[in-house]
Write a structure and sequence with these properties.
The protein is of the alpha/beta class and about 230 residues long. The chain folds into 2 domains: about 5-15 and about 105-225, 3-Layer(aba) Sandwich (Rossmann fold), CATH 3.40.50.1000; about 20-100, Four Helix Bundle (Hemerythrin (Met), subunit A). Helix content is about 50%, strand content about 10%. It is built from 11 helices and 6 strands. The chain has helices at about 20-35, 35-40, 45-55, 65-80, 85-100, 110-115, 130-135, 145-150, 155-165, 180-190, 220-225; strands at about 5-10, 120-125, 140-145, 175, 195, 210-215. The chain has a 6-stranded parallel sheet. Bound molecules: magnesium ion. Magnesium ion binds near residues 9, 12, 177 and 179.
């Protein structure tokens, strides 16, 4: 069956995310030091991360939606310390702005532009990156998040949401992502073709292999053309 749609993971597929998330956490902590000093006096950065993780563990039904979970955690933290919960949204925006300040991999805009001429382009992300805020939203026909799917990758529900958005059958969609479990195994379980984005050349860790492996995005168009 002809390929009609390409879906992309975002973090670590279109940009490196580790330093971005670490910086966003650090900026949020700086904001807490300034806006909520009582919390910072009694909680180190590490203690607040532990506090957040404990809160997430207490809301398992929401945890797949990282945006909502983080908002709820901040509201609960600020209320606990007597700060108005309205302040939580300001804190969330500090995190979100920095979390969406990314450096795209070299080939991203060119490859999205090339593929977008021939295929529908979608994003399937577990995180709270916003392609529109980042400035590449015009390349995407749809974006699917755990908030609307009710589950995160590798759950089939989020890939089914993407198939609905694309109006496509699994065999005509290729999913591209860096995570062997969430991206490759998750998409393959529903019958999508899979491309493993592996910039660091790591060994494949699982049994069922991806349909293709790339180290840079510029290898993607020829990989997909070979299937079309
Ligand atoms: Mg990723």
């Amino acid at each position: 069956m002809a390929i009609t749609c390409i879906t992309f993971d975002l973090d670590d597929t279109l940009w490196e995310s580790g330093s971005v998330l670490a910086n966003a956490e650090a900026k949020l902590y700086e904001w807490i030091e300034h806006a909520c000093p009582d919390i910072a006096h009694t909680h180190s950065y590490e203690a607040l991360v532990a506090h957040r993780n404990a809160h997430y563990a207490s809301i398992p039904e929401i945890r797949h939606d990282l945006t909502r979970a983080r908002r709820l955690w901040l509201e609960s933290l600020l209320q606990e310390w007597g700060y108005g919960s309205g302040l939580a949204e300001t804190g969330f925006r500090v995190f979100w702005e920095h979390r969406n300040t990314v450096t795209l991999f070299d080939d991203v805009t060119r490859v999205l532009g090339t593929l977008g001429q021939r295929y529908a382009i979608g994003a399937i992300t577990n995180g709270n990156a916003d392609v529109h805020h980042i400035g590449i939203g015009h390349h995407f026909d749809f974006v699917v998040t755990p908030a609307e799917a009710g589950a995160a990758k590798p759950d089939s529900a989020i890939f089914e949401c993407a198939l609905n958005a694309a109006g496509a059958s699994p065999e005509s969609v290729v999913h591209v992502g860096d995570d062997p479990m969430r991206d490759v195994a998750g998409a393959a379980a529903l019958g999508l073709r899979t491309v493993w984005m592996n910039p660091e050349g790591r060994p494949w860790p699982k049994e069922a292999r991806p349909d293709a492996e790339i180290r840079t995005l510029d290898a993607l168009p020829s990989t997909i053309d070979a299937w079309s």
